[in-house]
Amino acid sequence: MNTNKNEQILESILKDNPGSQVPQEVEARLRRHLKALRDRMEEPKGKELSATIRVLWRTFMKTKKTAFITASMIVIVALIVFQFIGNPVGPGLTFASVIEPILKAKTAAYDMVFGPDDGSRQAVHELVMNSRIRRQVAGSSAVTIIDLENRRVLFRNEANMEARYGYIDPKGMASGQNYPNGMVFSQNYLEELKNIILSLKDMPDFTVEELGRKQLDGREVIGFFASHPKLDITIWADVDTGLPVRIEYNVGTVHVTYKNMEFDLLMDEEMFSMEVPAGYMVQEPLTMDLQVTEENFIKGLRLIAEKLNHGLFPNDVSYESFSRWMTSGPINSQFDAMAKEEALAINLELIKFIRFTIFFPGEGKWTYRGNGVRLGEAESPIFWYKPEKSETYRVIYGDLHVENIAPEKLPQ
Amino acid sequence: MRADSSDYDILVKPIENQMIQSVWRIVRDPNDADDAFQEATTTIWKQLGRIRRHPNPHALILKICTDAAYDVLRHRIRHKRGQEQEEAIAAVPDPAPAATQLLISRETQAEILQAIGQLSPKQGTAVLMRFVNGLSYNDIAQSFGCREATVRKHVARARDRLYEVLEHLLPKSTKEVNE
After folding, report:
1. Lower Cβ count inside 10 Å, N or C end of chain A?
2. How many domains, chain B?
3. CATH label of the domain that carries residue B165
4. Per-residue DSSP letter, A240
5. Residue A394: is it exposed, middle or buried by C-beta count within 10 angstroms (0-12/13-18/19+)?
6. Which domain holds residue B95?
7. Residues A194-203: pLDDT tens digits?
8. Which of B48, B94, B136 to mutate to test the interface with A (most CBs of A within 10 A)?
9. Which residues of B touch A4 (CB under 8 A)?
10. Nearest by CB to A13, which of B96, B112, B144?
11. Is B41–A36 a contact, with Cβ atoms under 8 angstroms apart?
12. Distance (Å, rounded) from C-alpha A370 to C-alpha A374?
């Protein structure tokens, strides 16, 4: 093959075609970006923060809407740390070195998607600075600031200038039953991460598979699939920077993706302020119970049947189906028809309800048979599961009474 | 991370034109070029520390630009925006060629870009850096962080694939030489 000749022809086709010359107006537009880059690079030190905030702000502005509170990806990453220490990943790169910047990180930024990351789901954008989280939503006017250390939440709606404080029930702060090794997430993600790593030193249950390299958002990444009896994690790290950029895992029935991850960005403390801005109307405070309990689950089943579903239980209680159903037109219409405080109270109860299947506290899998069953049908078992270390199953019936049933007597 | 005021003059200024050309020659659409270039300059800012430490910072910056443009190209192909691309290309004033030549070139160009967009990401980036940016194999290898032989393999595979798809565009004499 006449390689040189062929290369010349390809080069000629690509380079010298009419239209390959940059039009003047395009060049002018692109040079504006160069000027902005130059300005940033030449900004005096004191202005660096504002430059970084601009980057963050642009990230925010790509976002849409918010979703439920969930565990930090940093906690999840921690689970696999010790499986990889010393495991060579590439030239000069080990998983230990990939994780190290996270351990040292003072701040983190990432986008979360609940459900398949296929563009159909809305992303939640979070910034973490020490014990504070800013959950920003562009496209909607909702901003949530979470102060884990003091267990306070500030909800701010910039559209209607309303604000509301929430207080997180401390009992619910230690409710990460779904995680191996009794791990919980509570006050400070980054500090907790270090504690978790220490506690996980001897965990033997992870298996790891290397996924090789691929291009992701314009950069080369290397992937790992780590599995544990209760948690599967896929992690992609930038080959060049060694930093994780994307993590995917399943919690119960929910597929969660963390992407666009960045660490140690400069952040302005003002962005995490728990003060209500001037001019906002402050609403009645909320108490937020994040406990995952059977009682909350049953309460949610009753609420759905009585208030939202014409006496019937929901078709499904997996997060995927439930979140679709909750955002469907008929349900939205019912919420619209309610008084504001009633709608809020029901929403809070339903968050507690669905957390039961997301952060399922039992052993193995739960079973739901409530589709088509009407509230009050005492003979119809609608949900059963096996609590931790229990020899019997808890079976919930259509009238919402509960029985302890031996495995051999479970409904078919 | 702190950028010295001379960083721009050292790292970016000497290759400003190459950066602009590398993005434009790949996307050939004013709005896509704007998006890709913004993404590229943002990435450059974020990765300034790495660029400073890199053995061949200019090649790395051009790779960042190529990656950003290539992402746009692949996205466009995935979303089957061929028609829109044609219209966008047609909307860009080009003072040089005669109308017939321009028409042929637009078709050719769209076909080539589509073919490149369907290569694997590594092959696509490598062939664009080689043929569009005119970088040496050594420079490309440094920007990829791999051996020169690896880049040559990527380019060779990409070239073979492009010949298969674009055979009808090659001059007859060259095809005969190849055979």
Report:
1. C
2. 1
3. 1.10.10.10
4. T
5. middle
6. 7-178
7. 444 344 434 5
8. B94
9. none
10. B112
11. yes
12. 8
